[in-house]
Amino acid sequence: MAKIDKLFQYLIENDGSDLHLSEGSVPKIRIHGSVTEIANTEVLTRATIEELLSEICDEKAFKNFLETGDLDFAYEMDASNRFRCNYFIQQHGLASVFRLIPTDIKTLMDLDVPPQIINLANIKSGLVLITGPTGSGKSTTLAALIDFINSSYKRHIVTVEEPIEFIHPNKQSIITQREVGIHTPSFAQGLKAAAREDTDVVLVGEMRDLDTIQLALTAAEMGMLVFGTLHTNSARKTVDRIIDVFPAEQQSQVRTMLASSLQGVVSQLLMKRIDKPGRCAVNEVLFSTPAVGAVIREGSTPKLYDVIQSGVDQGMMLMDDSIWARLQQGMVSPEEAYLKATNKERFAPMLPEEAKALVNGAG
């Protein structure tokens, strides 16, 4: 048993999601969105944190980390608990963040996300984007979609991740999981290789550069169903981000490609609950329609707001409407809703009087 496993056990027993270790500070964990110190622990010295981090890491990889300053990998403590590990060097020395990866893959129903999202797992080809900030549950939602396909269809599913998070056993489908830095040099290379691997569905852990995005669009046009993630919090910003990655002279062509291949965008945020401990997901949902394609080709992405608003009958949903629903259900506080909303004016009247005074004062 590694020494750090005791901290992982504490994290699990206290229903935490992340463990934070930083040289010069005491260990901390995130519970339901808030970071708190672990009681009765000492400040981590260089020697202590180096011992904790090196013990669960490949010796060569750890040496390389000390030279480069960054490292990502997965650590399996036991059959029931895996962690996504990120090592980095900061102002005061060594540091790391460990994200607990659930062993059981939850269904979309378990996650309480809009049920219409399942439609994106039933299509045969195109591009589907799951977006949101770090820690918003993108990987968990993606895992549920992949598991649904795995359970329902006979396909070859390839995932390209850094690191591999959820482990998918073969069910109806064949699952091939590849880790960047171990099984393939980069997301782009893994995606390029997928085109030669008789692939039906490919999951790209992160679409972070021009090459990866370009290859994802090409794969979708070739007939694959491509799932990818971006750190954006709305459908409009997602479309803009993809197009803006490309040089100006290519953007018209990219808009045409995206208009024909994009099947859907699901943006996700997590909100603190007030009805019980924990957090709940809120989502913006965009599905492909002729109107969506026209807006993307024209480059008039602000119109996507109106397209989503008028597409409610087709299962589309604005983020603010999802937040409003959680507020009406008594699941989140008016303050939390106001902070996460795009249109603050809509939520301001729901704030308590003391909070209204602060908001008005800030304005």
Helix content: 25-40%
Strand and helix order:
HEEEHHEEEHEHEEHEHEHHEEHHHHHH
Radius of gyration: 22 Å
Tell me the span between the first and last alpha carbons: 54 Å
Roughly what is the average pLDDT, rounded to an integer? 94
Which sequence of strands runs across the widest sheet? Answer: 9-8-10-11-7-12-13
Please provide the count of β strands.
Answer: 13
- What percentage of the residues does DSSP assign to strands (E)? 15-25%
Describe the structure in your own words:
The structure is a single chain. With 363 residues, this protein is of the alpha/beta class. It folds into two domains: 5-101, Beta-Lactamase (2-Layer Sandwich); 108-332, Rossmann fold (3-Layer(aba) Sandwich). Helices cover 37% and strands 25% of the residues. The N and C termini lie far apart (54 Å).
Task: Lay out the secondary structure.
Elements: H1 5-13, E1 18-22, E2 28-31, E3 34-37, H2 46-55, H3 59-68, E4 70-78, E5 81-90, E6 93-101, H4 108-111, E7 126-131, H5 138-152, E8 156-161, E9 174-179, H6 187-194, E10 201-204, H7 210-221, E11 225-230, H8 235-244, H9 251-261, E12 262-272, E13 279-287, H10 290-298, H11 304-310, H12 319-328, H13 334-340, H14 344-347, H15 353-362
Parallel strand pairs: 7-11, 7-12, 8-9, 8-10, 10-11
Antiparallel strand pairs: 1-2, 1-6, 2-3, 4-5, 5-6, 12-13
Helix pairs in contact: 6-7, 7-9, 9-10
